[in-house]
Amino acid sequence: MVLLETPTGADVSVLALVIMGVILVLGALGWWLGVGSGKGTGER
């Protein structure tokens, strides 16, 4: 926990990037699974 004694802008940006990455991955997986499960009906 020694690394957290000085919260800087870099830490905030890294956290933001990690959160955005997780959201993008989850969204992509959900979209891919949805398209894969409904190939016949979900054509766009």
Describe this structure in words.
This protein is 66% helix and 0% strand. It is rod-shaped. It has 44 residues and is mostly helical.
Q: How would you summarize this macromolecular structure in one to three sentences?
A:
The chain crosses the membrane at residues 12-34. The chain has 44 residues and is mostly helical. It has one helix spanning 9-37.
Q: What gap, in angstroms, lies between the N and C termini?
A: 49 Å
- What is the succession of H and E elements? H
Class by alpha and beta content = mainly alpha
Oligomer: single chain
Shape: rod-shaped
Largest sheet: none
Q: In what range is the share of β-strand residues?
A: under 5%
How many H/I helical runs?
Answer: 1
How many extended strands? 0
The chain-level mean pLDDT equals 79
Share in helix: 55-70%
Radius of gyration: 18 Å
> Could you list the spans in which at least 5 consecutive residues all have pLDDT below 50?
none
Transmembrane segments: 12-34
Keywords: Membrane, Transmembrane, Transmembrane helix
Secondary-structure topology with pairs:
Blueprint: H1 9-37
Keywords: Membrane, Transmembrane, Transmembrane helix
Transmembrane segments: 12-34
